[in-house]
Amino acid sequence: MRILITTIIIILVSANLSAQREAANWYFGQNAGLDFNSGTPVPLLDGQINTVEGCEAFSDSNGNLLFYTDGKTVWNRSHQVMPSGTELGGSFSTTQSALVVPNPIDKNIYYVFTPDDALSKNFGQTTNGFNYSVVDMAKDNGRGDVIDKNITLLAQCSEKVSAVRNASGDYYWVVTHFRNQFYAYRVDGSGVSENPVVSTTGPWIGDFENIRGSLKISPDGTKLAVAHTIVEPEYTGSFYLFDFEVDTGVVSNAQLISSERLYYGVEFSSNSSKLYASGMGITSLDGEKVVDKVEIVQYDLDAPNIAASEYLVFRFNKAINSFVAGALQIGIDKKIYHAIPGDRLSVIRTPNLKGLDSDFRQFYIDMGGRGATYGLPPFIQSFFETIVTIENFCEGDTTQFTTESNGTIASISWDFGDPLSGASNYSNDLNPTHVFSGFGVYTVTITVEYTNGNTRAFLEYVEIAEVPDVIQNVQLVQCDIDGNEDGISLFNLNEAIPLFNNGNADITANFFGTLQDALNNENILAPIGYQNSVDGEVVFARAFENSECFEIVEVELSAQPLTDLEFYKDIDLCDGTVGILATIVNMQEVHDQLYIDFAQDDIGLYLTEDNALLEVEKLPLEERTFGPFDPLLVYFRVEQGNDCAFIGHVTLNVHEKPVFDELVEVIACNGEAVLRGMDGFENYLWPDGSTQQVYSVQGTGNVDLIFGNDSCSYLQTFSVIDEAPFTISKIIINDFRPSNEVIIETELPDNMDGVRFSMDGGLSFQESNTFSRLLPGVYDLVVSDGCTEIKKTILVGGVTSFFTPNNDGINDRWALANPEFFPGAEISIFDRYGKLLSIIRNDGPGWDGTFNRREMPSDDYWYRLRLAEGRVVTGHFTLKR
């Protein structure tokens, strides 16, 4: 069944006879950017900005970038820092760090307003205050120059700023807030008035930590909304709505809209009928308030009780590591965008519509690989004002344009941006119709002459959609796990969308109990947790890309019997981390073990049975931490196609993986290697079936050992390699000393850890390559790597340190030790005065302690040894009588 009906998808920017694309280029986040000139955001990859929160960008009326800023630095259209464009008074960590307002008369002059920063006091600095700097685009060959900087308007203010144009379009109001006062500064052809209109209203925000949060004026200039991000002394919600008088700058009539969340982002829809806010949910943990998940809510400003009209647009499943809920910002396509850290923006596609019809799409906008943070660029809210209601957006429909004139329009001309439609592309009717030539985005230009003589141009983007190509009848099969095999279960109706959307991810749907409700778009069913009344019940999906160009799909709800597996089995996890305060489980390992039993099916893991039944908060297949009191239990859902086949749960027996080298190199000694498994395990299995801890292998190659305890086993690979030769590169002998020393230097291959050294023929070894305090003599050096040995004979030369020539047969003569190893050696002996007493040779008997047959007295004597190879050694010894 095909149903074509009306919607409001408009893009409107008002101005004096110009194309009005000042907000066409955005730069924000981590070098991210979007170009809206085509009516569809296209990633920009040339931005230099890298900011945590606030930012601003400004283009000319034809959509050509002029400059952008993070509140501290200004970059020109060439993405270079402007002359004098540094050290502005803003901050990259301010909610709305900068706002650009043009001079209404001098088209080259722009004012960059920079609010305060809550962090400034934390670092012992003075507060930034509320300042403005002046950019002259006539300077630097049209690239701009900051000609005046940080003109202070307030010594202290909040992180909030917004702006709107007055009704006649000849000046702007720039509004900020501090404590319980709003400050409205007039910007006209003469510049910025430094005498603000001050309105005292609303709550007192005294703590400087609480100045965060956004401020926005409605596009029609009648309302002002403010989010107070209260973090001290505890998290507290504060979201207020005020009246704003665009002709006087007065703020009045404070209304507390909500105190349920920690609010941050604020935005109005283009026709100023809906108000949106982002906030963190506030919960209590151990008596302390904590923030949880980001929520986006809508309020109907036409409702008798605005606060009671609250509609939860979306709640993000995953908490973010911050108390900041992310900015909301309307674009010139009249969609509202939301930013939290990630590589995509979320979007509210039809924010003028109520409830589900606002059409929220999570992480829908691609940014070409760049990253969002918490901020988006604010603009003068008048750029987004809507004066036209547009209806009927399906291809082939007659699109109706209805102007909100209030008798003020003298004449109007339309260019529908559809040249293929011929003469009908133009109209001078107040409320024309047009049949667009095909689906796509059209740029509609409206030129309006008012009865007061003022002429303005408006720009709108109209998106004409294809009629959704869907399957008309589908069956959504659910498991029946309530204990009664009666075909009654709980359903997540959104799971039917992939069944009928033919792979078009842009198609979404609302669900209704009757066909008439679906046609009338009323009595919407809550899609998550819907309980069918009978097996085979039919509900009706209103499927659409643009919310009211839709098709009706019949969805049959069927609950399968015998699908509740309840407790399925214990799963042993062998790669976990077990601690007193936390147990870490790799959910991929849980999935893989279940996949053995359900190999042809899709398996999802969940923390609760309800989540598994409704397919919400599916666990990612990554490491997950369980607290000390969390049950080690996981639910799983098995699907065949998109039909629920089974739901059950498993308990997790978590074992800590031992720490070991998965690849161990072992050197084969004489073609044989002895491999040893890790100590402390019950089971060992070698390739030949051996179950011993120690295993011998002949030859080289890889040998796998499977070891473990009970049901957990681990693989260790031994790489057996041939012994790589090592060599002795140098032997250094420092002898003929009171304390002789030998140093052995070796060259080892890369895979060898080290060798051991012996000087006694291998009876004892040491790790050190240095032997000290050696007596003169002959030594048998052995160097071994545990397999190969290199042997050498080492001669350590020396002389005795004393002798006693008393003819007792002991030490009667002084001579060279081991003289047979020093052929040709000659020793000259001197007294302390240098008198030569004797010359002895290696083959002689040595010195008897006489000179000219006279006994020399007890004393120290000196020697000079000259070896055959030319080496000369000197020293002394003692004669004792």
From TrEMBL:
Database matches in Gene3D superfamilies: Immunoglobulins (2.60.40.10)
SUPFAM superfamilies given in the database record: DPP6 N-terminal domain-like (SSF82171), PKD domain (SSF49299)
Alphabetically ordered keywords of this record: Signal
Keyword field contains Repeat: no
Statement: the UniProt record of this protein carries the keyword Signal: yes
PKD domain segment(s): 398-455
Record's signal peptide: 1-19
UniProt superkingdom: Bacteria
InterPro entries (alphabetical): Ig-like_fold, PKD_dom, PKD_dom_sf, T9SS_type_B
Name the UniProt record assigns to this protein: PKD domain-containing protein
Organism in which the protein naturally occurs: Flagellimonas lutaonensis
